[in-house]
Design a protein that fits this description.
The complex is a heterotrimer of chains A (164), B (200) and C (459). Chain A is an alpha/beta fold and 164 residues long. Chain A is built from eight helices and six strands; from the N terminus they run αβαααβααβαβαββ. Chain A has a four-stranded parallel β-sheet. A two-stranded antiparallel ribbon of chain A has the order 5-6. In chain A, helix 6 crosses helix 7. The longest helix of chain A has 17 residues. Chain B has 200 residues and is of the alpha/beta class. Chain B has one domain: NagB/RpiA/CoA transferase-like (Rossmann fold). Helix content of chain B is 20%, strand content 26%. Chain B contains five helices and eleven strands, in the order H-H-E-H-H-E-E-E-E-E-E-H-E-E-E-E. In chain B, strand 4 and strand 5 form a beta hairpin. Chain B starts with a helix and ends with a strand. Chain C is an alpha/beta fold. Helix content of chain C is 51%, strand content 10%. In chain C, a hairpin with a 4-residue loop joins strand 5 and strand 6. Classes of the chains: A alpha/beta (164), B alpha/beta (200), C alpha/beta (459). Chains in contact: A-C, B-C. Chains B and C meet through helix 1, helix 5, strand 8 and strand 9 of B and helix 2, helix 3, helix 4, helix 8 and helix 10 of C. Strand 8 of chain B pairs antiparallel with strand 9 of chain C.
Chain lengths: 164, 200, 459
Amino acid sequence: MKSKTYELCEFLTDVVQVEKLAVQFPHRVGYHQSCHGLRELRLGAASELMPPPDDAAVGNNESKTHRLLRMVEGLELVTLERSDECCGFGGAFAVGEEAVSCMMGQDRIADHQQAGAEVIVANDMSCLMHMDGLIRRQKQNLPVMHIAELLAGNKLPRNGKTQP
Amino acid sequence: MESKQAILQALRSKPIDEQPAPSLQQNWAATPNASDTFEKMVAAVGGNCMRVRNIQDGLAKLSELPCYADAKKICSLVEGVEKADVSLDDIADPHDLEDVDVAIVRGEFGVAENGAVWLTDSGVKHRVIYFIPQHIIVLLGAEQIVHNMHQAYERLRFEQAGFGVFLSGPSKTADIEQSLVIGAHGARSLHVLLLENDGA
Amino acid sequence: MTHGVSDHPQKAAEFIADSQRAHWHDGALWFVRDKRDAAARSVPEWEQLRETAKQIKAHSLSRLPDYLEEFERKATALGAQVHWARDAQEHNEIVYGILKAGGVRRVVKSKSMLTEECHLNPFLEQHGIEVVDTDLGERIVQLRQEPPSHIVLPAIHIKKEEVGDCFHEHLGTEAGATDPAYLTEAARQHLRERFMQADAGITGVNFAIAETGGFVVCTNEGNADLGVSLPKLHIACMGLEKIIPRAADLGVFLRLLARSATGQPITTYSSHFHGPRADGALHIVLVDNGRSALQQSEEHQRALSCIRCGACLNTCPVYRRSGGHSYETPVPGPIGSILAPSRDPGKYASLPFACSLCGSCTDVCPVKIDIHHQLLTWRRELAESGHLDWKKRWSMRLAGVVLGRVWLYRFAGKAMRTVMPLLPRFLKYNPLNAWGKQRELPPMPRKSFREQYRRRHGK
C-alpha cells in the first residue's frame, strides 16, 4: 500500500511530473511545512539535516510543494524566521498539552504575520484546523488554505469563506 | 565484585546480535590550508594566533603581549624566557601555582578544524599549569597542524598512564543568559605563537 | 522512588502562564539551535559523521559487557581503581566510602548528569561532606537550591537579574548588578577559593575508551581540570553506556558533540585521563541504574547511544516553551522522556505525550536516535501496561472503536455535521473541551468529502 500511496504534491511532482501550472494567485503566501510531510514523508529537506555540499536546493529548505508554488503566477512566498517549526497540533497533543500546543500555534501564526503573509498554506489539514481555530478565536484576518485549494485555482478566502 | 557480576549477567541475559564497527578510514574533508584555517579557528574560539619565523622571534614577540608585559609571576616550560621566575620542578604542591599570571608552554600539535592544541603532562610535573594561570601562551610548530580530529587521533597513542588535553581557546562560559564571557575558571586569554621554523 | 506523579501538561501550563518569560526561554534555546545549524553546516560530511557515530554506538552497545571488562582491565593496569554500582544508592555509597577513606571534607564537582540522576549531593551533605558544583550554571542552580533545567545549559531558565540577586545574597556582589561579565568574575573568585580548599574532585565522563582504559571529560570553563589537578583524589562517575571501543572513535564524537550542543567546533577543554596523577589516586565508578534493562530492550536500546549534547532539547518546540523543570527528571526534553519512564513508568507516564511528534529531535540528534518514534512506542507500552490516566484511556478506546468501523465513522461524521451547527455556543465550549479553550472548532461543512465526490462524479 505504501508504494501506491502518495501525498498530493509528491504525486504532482514525481508521478504526473507537472512542469507548468495555469494558476494565478497574486498574493504573499506563507507556506507552513507540516512535520509529517517534511520529516516522515520527506517531501523536502528538514532544516536540521545538512545537505551534501553540491546540493544547493536542499540547503534552502526547499520542498516539492515549494516547487509547485513557484509555478503559480503572481505568487510570492514570504520568508519565515523559522522555516519548519511545528505548529503544535500533534493529534491528541492538541488537547493533552493544550497550553504548549496553543503557544506553538500562536508563535507560528505570528511568524507568518511578521513575514507579511496574506494567507497560510499547508499540505496538512490538521495543522490548518489548529492554526485557523486560533486565528478565528482572536478575530485576526489571516485566512488559511490547503495546498489543493490553491493549486485548484481557488481565490484568497474572504471573511472566512472559500472563494472558488 | 558481586555487583560487577550482577551487572555483566544482566547485560548478557539476552544475546544481542553484534553490530559491526564502522571503518574510520573515510573520505573526511581536508581544510584548504591547515595552518591558515588553524589561525582563523584560534581566533574564532576566542584566542589569538600569531605567526613568527622561529623560536627566537617568538620569544622576542612575548614582550609585545600585554599579559606578559604586566605579569608578576611567569612559569615557562620553554627555555629562554627572560622573565620566567617560577620553575615547575621546584614546586612541591600544585596549589602553590595559584598566583602564576602567565604560563608559557609547548603544544605538540594543532587541529585546523577547531583551533585546538594538544598538550600533555609528559615531562610536566604539575598539569594544573595548563589550567591555573591567568593567561596561557602556547608555542607550536606550524608544520604540526593536522586538518581534522581524525588525523589528530592517528597521531595519538595512549599506551602509558598520562594526561592530555585538546585546548581550544581561553576558558569561557555562556551560562548567564547565553552571554559569552571569556575567563571562567581557566586562562583568561590564550595566545598561540606559530613557529614557521621550529628548531625543536 | 515514586514521589507523586509527574504532570507535564500542568507544569507546562504554569510555565507558559508567564508568556513573556516562556517566549524569552524559547528564544534563548532557538538561538542555540541556530548556532548548532551554522556549526553543522560548516562540516561538509556532517551526515556521514552522524551515521558513523550511530554505527559506533550500535556496535558498542552490542558488545557492551565485553568492552566494560576490557575497560576495567586496561584502566586498572594504568593504576586506576574501578568500581561497579548497580543503582544510585550503591553509587552514592561507593563515592562516600572513597571520600571517607581519604578523610575528605570538601569536594569540588564538575558537571555530571549521572550524579544528578543519583542525587549524590544531598547524600554526601547528609554525611557531612561539602559538595560544590563548579560549573557556573550548576553553581547558580545549586545556590538557588533547585535542579538544573538543561543538561548542557543548567541555568538557561534563569535571568541575569535573578543571577544578580542570587550572587548578591551568597557571594556579596553589588545589589542590582546584572552584567554577565561582572557576575562571572565574581563566581571565578568565589570558586577559585573552593578549588584551593578542596580535598577531592569529582567529574563525570563523556567517553570511556575500552582499548586504552582512559576517559574523556569535556568542559568549556576548565572547572573539571582545575578540580582534579589540585587535590590528589579524583573520582570519575560514569553510566555504563559511555563506553566506546577505540580512541580513534573520539575523532567522530568530538567533532559532533560541541557543534551539536552549543555550535562550538569543540569544547575549550577535552581532557584525556589515563590513570592517576603520579602523586594521586583515580577511582572510576561504573553505574548501571536501569541501563542494563534498557540495553536489553530492543525498542529502547538505542536511547543508550545518547552523548548528552542537549541538541534535542534545544530544538524541541515543547521543551523550549515548557522549561526543563516541567519534566521533573534530571534529563529533561525528548531524550529524557524516553529514559525517565524506563526507570519509573508510573511516575513519568505523561512525558512521552509531551511531544507533538514533529520529529525535529530525531533529525538533529548527532547519533541518529529515532527519538520521536521511541516516544510513540512508549505511548503504546504505557497503554498496554496500564499506566495511562482515565481520560487518555477512554478517549483512545473510543477513538479505536469509531475509527475501526467504517459505518460508525461515517455515522459519527454525519451526526457531527448535523448537530454541531445547531448547538448553542456554551454547550460546545464547555470546560471539558480543551480544544475550545483558546481555539474555535472548525466550521462544519454540510457534506463530507465523500458525499461531494459522489455527487460530482454521479456515483
